[in-house]
Amino acid sequence: MKILLVEDNLDLTQNIINYLLKEGIRCESARTLFDAQDKLLSYGYDCILLDLMLPDGSGLQLLDTIKTHKIDTTILIISAKDSLDDKLSGLDQGADDYLPKPFHLSELLARLKAIYRRTKMNGFDEITFNELTISNSQLQVLVNNKILDLTKKEYDLLLFFLTNKDRVVGKQAIAHHLWGDYTDDLSNFDFVYQHVKNLRKKISAAGGRDYIETVYGLGYKFNTSAA
Prior knowledge:
Blueprint: E1 2-6, H1 10-22, E2 26-30, H2 33-42, E3 47-50, E4 53-54, E5 57-58, H3 60-68, E6 74-79, H4 84-92, E7 97-100, H5 105-120, E8 126-129, E9 132-135, E10 140-143, E11 146-147, H6 152-162, E12 168-170, H7 171-179, H8 190-205, E13 212-215, E14 219-222
Parallel strand pairs: 1-2, 1-3, 3-6, 6-7
Antiparallel strand pairs: 4-5, 8-9, 9-10, 10-11, 12-14, 13-14
């Protein structure tokens, strides 16, 4: 899961980033509305953690940006402005949930997981496709009911493919999703090829079919018709 935290409180930002990182969730941050809009228009995120009170505007303006540009993401508002009008405005404009400050980080994590299950995994903790099963709560992959030995990046890569079945995803999009925005400075994305190669090899060795198709010049696709 890749998160964008839009929050101007540096201490809270660092606490959230450190906590989510320990839970295996990549979290990047933006302190202003302008920075958040720039990141959203440049990169993809599974969820936006959005404070409503920002130095250069209201977080509700970011919801307008998401709607106008049809950005595929989810929004969890985290704000000290806990009035009913603010909550309803955010939800009416497309936010998925609202968590008033102060909150426990464990509750934040639970809300994020619930949104992810609802929007990416049809409300379940598992994704199953033929002989492949991903258990998001256990961070495990099963091939024919046997645990597959994957690195964290290989697990995240397979989950990314399965939640984007039959869509072509570019190497740059994969790199951004798994390693973060700093990959903009890289001259090539050969490391993505190596991770895809290792993942395909491990699935095949465990008796699984090779669903990951190379789309030359573009990237990769989890091809369900390969079944």
